[in-house]
Specification:
Layout (H helix, E strand, L loop, with lengths): L1 H32 L5 H40 L3 H5 L1 H5 L7 H21 L6 H29 L17
Helix pairs in contact: 1-2, 1-6, 2-6
Length: 172
Amino acid sequence: MLGRVGAWWGVIGVSLLIGWAVVRLSPIAAEAWAMSWGWMEWALAVPWLLFMLVGEGYRGFQKGFAPRVAARARYLREHPTTLRVALAPAFCMGFFDATRKRMIVSWAVTTGIVLLILGVRLLPQPWRGIVDLGVVAGLSWGLVAIVVYGVYALTAQSFDHPTDTPGTEPVE
């Protein structure tokens, strides 16, 4: 029972985190739409939006982060500990009880995202809104991917994606 609660808490918690970012950034992106755009704004917005959909949404979330979150949630269901269950979203994101490489990547990516957030906040509109538009698009794609993979991983008979937990490293 504890494992099931932890697994669902992991998927729901990560989804809430991503969803909260979408909610917070959407008004800033929408504010940019209310402004008059010239060719320079459009020249940045269109490729940026496509880049974020493919790079963040598809490659980052759908192909990497979402299946790993789901696989770690499934692993948590079968291997619960009090700490893992209490901090299930952080466990599912690979911040602890992960391979050395996974923890380094998880912490480095998170640090990079925080630094980018701090930098983007300094941009004036419509530039900040254009950047946030791409981020919202990528995060929205990612949110859907996390929910779909999470539900599938926790309801299907099998889910063949790496968990990046210690002792499960692929043999090279």
